[in-house]
Write a structure and sequence with these properties.
Blueprint (H helix, E strand, L loop, with lengths): L1 H12 L14 H11 L3 E2 L3 E4 L6 H15 L4 H12 L13 H28 L10 H12 L1
Antiparallel strand pairs: 1-2
Helix pairs in contact: 2-3, 3-4
Protein name: Cytochrome c-type biogenesis protein
Pfam families: CcmH
Keywords: Cytochrome c-type biogenesis, Heme, Iron, Membrane, Metal-binding, Signal, Transmembrane, Transmembrane helix
């Protein structure tokens, strides 16, 4: 039982260890901006994890770059653009809905609508189809059915 509690405590504390004390800026306003920007940037090593939550060396470098750009006087948008210019659009956890990304943003809902349309057409054609009744059997088929049921 103690081991389970210890393991759960260590797992819960793991994301807290990502940001090192030497990375924290002295200015609380700049640090808050850095945290906000970092929460929207993807760790290139860990994939779907923000750089604030990652212990990877590259994530640390990215956190330091964000803080350096803020200390240099860049706006939040300029800092994000600097990271995107350096690492590409993939560095954003929430990609921008511009240019070729529109295809990705619209593909999911588009496929859902197309699939729903196909399903509706299929169900509609099934409802219109003539149901086959038992009395539509020819006399030979009825006799064959009777012999099969008697066996």
């Amino acid at each position: 039982m103690r081991r389970l509690v210890l393991i759960l405590a260590l797992l819960a504390a793991a994301p807290l260890a990502a940001l090192q004390p030497d990375e924290v800026l002295d200015d609380p306003a700049l640090e808050e901006r850095a945290r906000e920007i970092s929460s929207g940037l993807r760790c290139m090593v860990c994939r779907n994890e923000a750089i604030d939550e990652s212990n990877a060396p590259l994530a640390r470098d990215m956190r330091l770059m964000v803080r350096e750009r803020l200390v240099a006087g860049d706006t939040d948008e300029e800092v994000v653009q600097y990271i995107v210019d350096r690492y590409g659009e993939y560095a954003l956890l929430n990609p921008r809905a511009t240019g070729a990304n529109w295809i990705l943003w619209l593909a999911g809902p588009g496929m859902l609508l197309i699939g729903g349309g196909i399903a509706a057409l299929y169900l509609r054609s099934r409802a219109r189809a003539k149901a086959v009744a038992d009395d539509d059997l020819s006399p030979e088929e009825a006799a064959r059915l009777r012999t099969l049921l008697e066996e």
